[in-house]
Amino acid sequence: MKKIGILTSGGDCSGMNATIRSAVRTGLRMNIEMVGFRKGYLGLMKGDGITLDSKSVSGILHRGGTFLQSARSQEFRTPEGQQKALDNLRNLGVEGLVILGGDGSLTGALALHRLGFPVIGIPASIDNDIPFTDMALGVDTALNNIIYAVDCIKDTASSHARAFVIEVMGRNSGYLASVSAIATGAEFALVPEREFDLSEICQQLRARYEEGRDNAIIILAEGAGNAQHIADSIKDAIGFETRVTVLGHYQRGGAPTVFDRLLASRLGKKAVELLISGQQGLMVGLSCNAIIATPLEDVIKGEKRPQDEMLRLAEVLGI
Ligand code: F6P
User: Fold this and answer.
1) Less packed terminus of the chain by CB within 10 Å, N or C?
2) Considering the domain boundaries, does residue 307 fall inside one?
3) Is the dihedral of CA 26, 29, 33, 38 positive or negative?
């Protein structure tokens, strides 16, 4: 193998730059030419590749986001889009591809693999819902962002005797909500994986209020309900003053934590090594602190990473 490409796709996350840096440095050490495609699969379909030398990836380890930029592409889901990408890869002499992203992006990686192109996927999504990896890239940084924000909000919540509904990301995944609730000592974590009874929550808040606890933090995963509706219901039911904070895309940015920098460096290196050794159609991931590789076929048809343990822990801790 002489030339390897890399791209970042779907929702960005902290640690993508550190992964690109690691992959590029690993490839260059083994005399492989490295090419970055801009804006994920869009860049692949346009043949928008840039040569990545050692200098082009210096000074990016500590930066959030992705300097290659990212995008979600409908066109790449079509056979025509995939063929365009394949033609460009072949014309550019790229013989293998490292693809960073969440489940949609890894599904794209699997499509290329099925068409016979060597790919290795890297799980990168703050939702942490990708099977066959304990942690996806960016999750730890996102959690630290959330925890910093919730700690700040707790200060003002207690000063004003208010309940806050804090919405975190997670359309279909309650990982960020449940783990941040555990780590901040929130009163409730509301997640898409588990139904909740709003009147029951109001009752519990009222009981707490009568015991003298006059502030509360409810962490809501965006896919679990409407933050304003929940806040209004609490206010109407118990007269508790409520506020809503939507953390939004703040969660996805910022300097990666040590955990994410290390994970990025390990996954980037492993992905390139696998391609060079002739392996393909795999996703690299973290399992019991070891870097493992799992067929993309299994990753995509696998059950979404179960959140049971965190949800049970939250329950035991009274969240
Ligand atoms: O897939 C990660 C994620 O952060 C989800 O939790 C969230 O719903 C979504 O991306 C937001 O995507 P966008 O950046 O396109 O608004």
Assistant:
1) N
2) no
3) positive
How far apart are the CA of 11 and the centre of ligand 1, in A?
Answer: 6
Split into its structural domains, the chain has a count of 2
Give me the CATH number covering residue 52. 3.40.50.450
Q: Does the structure show a pLDDT above 80 at 35? A: yes
- Structural domain span for residue 164: 140-252
Same domain, 134 and 264: yes
Is 212 within a domain? yes
Q: Is 48 a catalytic residue?
A: no
Q: Which two tokens stand for residue 268?
A: 């980037």
Predicted local distance difference test score (pLDDT) of residue 157? 97
The span from the CA of 238 to the CA of 207, in Å, is 10
Nearest CA to ligand 1 atom 13: 11
Distance 252 CA to ligand 1 centre (A): 9
127 CA distance to ligand 1 middle (Å): 8
pLDDT over threshold 80, residue 307: no
Q: How far apart are CA 167 and CA 52, in angstroms?
A: 38
Q: Which of 132, 122, 102 is nearest to 306 (CA)?
A: 132
Within 10 angstroms of residue 277's Cβ, the number of other Cβ atoms is: 9
User: Pocket around ligand 1: residues whose beta carbon is below 6 Å from it?
Assistant: 11, 102, 125-127, 169-171, 222, 252
**Whole-prediction pTM:** 0.96
Taking only the tens place, the pLDDT of each residue in 243-271 is: 999 999 999 999 999 999 999 999 999 99
Q: How confident is the model at residue 218 (pLDDT cuts 50, 70, 90)?
A: very high
